[in-house]
């Protein structure tokens, strides 16, 4: 099993706070944001490697970060997607496909956004996902109010916890249950990513893939409890810095 951390964005919504610093390395209570994500996977018994995909602009920043984590239980490798500007970025699904293809990934793959902070453990999520393999599983969070869900991918589940609807940034959300940029892609499903990109040409949002996939095959959802922050703006970063302890 591998973990892929998505960190190839340019954080334009956080300018000028991070113009020369990747969002994933912003400090939260004295530690880089991405450290909290990495910690979640340290004890997974089947983990073989952590991959972090970034861009050419910030590759050196993350190489230095990886060097500082040489004592992590498994190797951490930085993958440069070769882009140099927000206009040229590959998008979340483009980066996922780039890594799967370049690295010839053939293991189960957990994909995690580097700008998500949450305090729940991932062990039960992985256990649930493996039980439902070869179907894909997504991590979900109840944001508490439909109005607040409008800027996310909004999900409904059936009684078996299968995704019954997925809408990206709906004007009238059906629920306050949202995708939190945490995915379990079983090894047998990895070929679907390239198929999705070829069919839709939509490489930007990871949620678009789920919206496409659940209509073709079962996709399961796992609800996380506790605190969750999406570091997408200066305000959300300041909120997390004040209230998140990890």
Describe this structure in words.
- 26% of the residues lie in helices and 26% in strands.
- The protein is α/β, with parallel strands linked by helices and 246 residues long.
- The strands form 4 sheets. The protein has a 7-stranded mixed sheet with strand order 5-4-1-6-11-8-12, with helices on both faces. Strands 2-3 form a two-stranded antiparallel sheet.
- It starts with a strand and ends with a helix.
- The mean pLDDT is 93.
Please outline the helices and strands.
Blueprint: E1 2-6, E2 27-28, E3 31-32, H1 33-40, E4 49-54, H2 59-67, E5 76-80, H3 92-102, E6 109-113, E7 116-118, H4 123-131, E8 136-142, E9 153-157, E10 163-168, E11 177-185, H5 191-200, H6 206-213, E12 219-224, E13 228-230, H7 234-243
Parallel strand pairs: 1-4, 1-6, 4-5, 8-12
Antiparallel strand pairs: 2-3, 6-11, 7-13, 8-11, 9-10
What CATH calls the topology is Spore Coat Polysaccharide Biosynthesis Protein SpsA, Chain A
Shape: globular
Strand content is: 25-35%
Number of domains: 1
pLDDT averaged residue by residue: 93
What is the terminal separation in angstroms? 24 Å
User: In the CATH hierarchy, what is the class?
Assistant: Alpha Beta
Counted by DSSP, the helix tally is 7
Q: How are the strands ordered across the major sheet?
A: 5-4-1-6-11-8-12
Main β-sheet description:
7 strands, mixed
User: Poorly predicted ranges (pLDDT <50, ≥5 residues)?
Assistant: none
Q: CATH homologous superfamily - what is it?
A: Spore Coat Polysaccharide Biosynthesis Protein SpsA, Chain A
The Rg value, from CA coordinates, equals 17 Å
What is the string of SSEs from the N terminus onward? EEEHEHEHEEHEEEEHHEEH
Tally of DSSP β-strands:
13
Structural class: alpha/beta
Give the helix proportion (percent range): 25-40%
Q: Architecture, CATH level 2?
A: Alpha-Beta Complex
């Amino acid at each position: 099993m591998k973990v892929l951390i998505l960190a190839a964005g340019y954080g334009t919504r956080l300018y000028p706070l991070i113009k020369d610093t990747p969002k994933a390395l912003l400090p939260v209570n004295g530690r880089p944001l991405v450290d909290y994500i990495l910690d979640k996977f340290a004890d997974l018994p089947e983990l073989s490697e952590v991959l972090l995909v970034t861009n050419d602009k910030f590759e050196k920043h993350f190489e230095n970060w990886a060097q500082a984590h040489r004592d992590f239980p498994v190797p951490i490798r930085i993958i440069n997607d070769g882009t140099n500007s927000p206009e040229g970025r590959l998008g979340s699904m483009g980066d996922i496909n780039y890594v799967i293809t370049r690295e010839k990934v053939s293991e189960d793959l957990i994909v995690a956004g580097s700008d998500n902070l949450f305090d729940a453990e991932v062990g039960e999520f992985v256990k649930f996902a493996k039980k439902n393999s070869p179907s894909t599983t997504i991590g979900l969070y109840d944001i508490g109010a439909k109005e607040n869900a409008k800027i996310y991918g909004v999900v409904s589940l059936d009684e078996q916890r299968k995704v019954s609807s997925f809408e990206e940034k709906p004007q009238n959300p059906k629920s306050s249950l949202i995708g939190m940029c945490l995915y379990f892609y079983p090894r047998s499903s990895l070929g679907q990513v390239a198929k999705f990109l070829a069919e839709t040409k939509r490489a930007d949002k990871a949620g678009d893939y789920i919206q496409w996939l659940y209509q073709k095959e079962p996709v399961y959802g796992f609800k996380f409890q506790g605190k969750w922050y999406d570091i997408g703006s200066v305000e959300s970063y300041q909120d997390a810095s004040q209230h998140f302890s990890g």
